[in-house]
Amino acid sequence: MTKEISQLYRSAEGDCHRSSKTPSRFRLFCASFFPPFVFGSLVIAGWYLISYGILDESRRFLLQPPHKVLTNGFLDWGGRDGLAGMLESLWSSTKVAGIGLFFAILIGFLLAVIMSQAVAVEKALFPYLVTLQAIPILAVVPLIMFWWGSGQTSRVVVCILISLFPIIVNTLFGLQSAEKDMHALFTLHSASRFTKLRKLMIPAALPAIFAGLRISAGLSVIGAIVGDFFFGKGEVGLGQLIKRFSSELQGEELLAAVILSSALGVAVFLLFTWIQNKAIGKWSDRADLI
Amino acid sequence: MPDISSLSLTFDGVGMTFPDGTDALRDVSFSVAPSEFVSVVGPSGCGKSTLLNIASGLLKPSSGSVEVADISLGYIFQDPTLLPWRTVKRNVELLCELHQIPKEERQERAQEAINLVGLSGFENHFPKTLSGGMKMRTSLARTLTLHPEMFLFDEPFGSLDEITREKLNDETQILFQKEGFASLFITHSISEAVFLSTKVYVMSERPGTIVAAFDVPFEYPRVPNQRFDPSFTKICREVSNALRGVRHD
């Protein structure tokens, strides 16, 4: 079937649906929110079952029931372990993740652009980037401590190390994704290297760059929290908080802090998805993928 | 043979062997005169596209020489090669942009070319919303903005359906008549070649070389029904026979 005809066919089909029976907004809403709601309820039910059915009272601190996490973890505002302190930590971790991600984007993008310009550079750097990626963060903790102390700078360094690789790899892949004929077109009209980069390679790379960004944004949050575990000087981040709550057996607060951390990760991911859809949604076929 | 300096493009004993040892072309000699529409038909993989790469300067021949007059070339690729992040209008403006033509003139030329290929109304559409035929029209318009004196076509309509293809053939020869450019058109469709051209060359299998030449005497503009004219089908049959003669299978 030809493209034109198949398109006609598709739009005709679309019209049919619209005219015969359009599901109401409410029904669409239900259809997409009912399944996760049901599953969420089941998880909470299972959670209660473990807290009250399986654990006896002396061991209940292992998994406090949901409502206690809510009241003791979230609804308790002031005090040493109140929500106010937790939000402060959340803000501190957000800053660390944000700064780390910013530098990872900067370094990653520049490295990828340089590598895209010369095969020799790509060949020279790539094995070391893979090696760098393979080093467990735990193994370089002492080094980071030597060089940058145990404050915020070291936490940012962990963030950068953790989130750098996907940005480089995806950006490089994107920069190389423009077809041969596209390059030929620019070459035929004597476009400079820089013009090619600016008008062809970078825009062509955007979908892949965003794919990398969304992965790295989540990783930078993990980096901020992992960094907290080793480098606790200065502001108290979420990782510090989690460490303290676990050592003091404060199950409710511990779970609340964990939930906040994952909420931060989700928020950052959604933010970048939103930016992506704004930036390339109009023209890219891939933008609607989440 | 006319004086070489008055020709748009001349291949003289051109041979091409790729570094991997593939013998693509051997001793190809022919020329294209101004306002001549030359088609080259041949079996797939016979080095037809290599011919265009050499003519445009993207490749250097390993033997023989190519003379290109001091004229502007327009290259139409097999794929529309549109930039997906640009609208039709911005895609059409691209080449003027690369040649640093001022914005106002650029936009004027783009609009003119868009009207010429019948895409008015689609200026602000992104390529992903266009059909294959419309994409190819955009690609044509993009090249038309530079008013090239010679077009190099690399099987541009090969991936289109028959109906769209015939329509674009009709329009291409009208454009050819209107704009008066010279053309070197690569295709594997015999009827397309005969319908469009003043001259059709037949190429052999790899290593490709010219084995037959046919003049197509019909006046321009040609009407769609020309395709069913006995004199038209006669030429097609002759081209087809020449092609069959060069195939080993």
Structural account:
With 290 residues, chain A is mainly α. Chain A has a domain at 89-280: MetI-like fold, CATH 1.10.3720. Helix content of chain A is 80%, strand content 0%. Chain A has helices at residues 3-20, 25-54, 66-74, 83-117, 119-134, 137-148, 152-175, 180-188, 193-230, 238-247, 251-280. Chain A starts with a helix and ends in a 10-residue tail after the last helix. By secondary structure, chain B is an alpha/beta fold. Chain B folds into two domains: 1-71 and 149-225 and 245-249, Rossmann fold; 77-148, no CATH class. Chain B has seven helices and nine strands. Chain B has a six-stranded mixed sheet with strand order 5-6-7-3-8-9, with helices on both faces. In chain B, strands 2-1-4 form a three-stranded antiparallel sheet, with helices on one face. In chain B, a hairpin with a 5-residue loop joins strand 1 and strand 2. The radius of gyration of chain B is 18 Å and the shape is globular.
